[in-house]
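Annual report, structural modelling task.

Input specification for the heme C complex:
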Amino acid sequence: MRSSIISSLFALVGFVLFIQCSNSKPSRGQALYETHCGNCHLNNGQGIGTLMPPLKNADYILENRADLACIITNGLEGEIEVNEITYNNPMLPITELSEVDIVNILNYIQAQWYPQESVFSISEIKDQLENCN
Ligand code: HEC
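The model returned the following structure:
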């Protein structure tokens, strides 16, 4: 009797935790993305015309995976081509993000638009930041 009460309690606690975790609150990565990237690249990642390049389905992201953390912390300047469109507007450095924030943002981008690519680890990001050009 007693053990069945205890196991129902555990089941209840588990259920409550499950509900809390599966509600639609945005993930940390999504919240950071929308605060720090979405105003230019848009929350849907599509960019703005020839002013802001897309982060969604961008060949540039696939070809420059090793530079992504440095692009965020140091910005990017000069002509680039993304999906055959030329962009040339500076992206300013975003310096207030921690390494963990950057991992969360890049994994949000990866999960949303590049599910076929591997996730980013903190050591990959540390490595990138130590080797910025
Ligand atoms: C104030 C506007 C602005 C913000 C905020 C911004 N970017 Fe950018 N981003 C740009 C612009 C403009 C370029 C094009 C740079 C160039 O022409 O050399 C760019 C280029 C890029 C590129 C390379 C091109 C591409 O589309 O793949 C990546 C990757 C990128 N940004 C990621 C991010 C991420 C991640 C964030 C948030 C942490 C972010 N940007 C925040 C304006 C912004």
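The chain has a mean pLDDT of 90.
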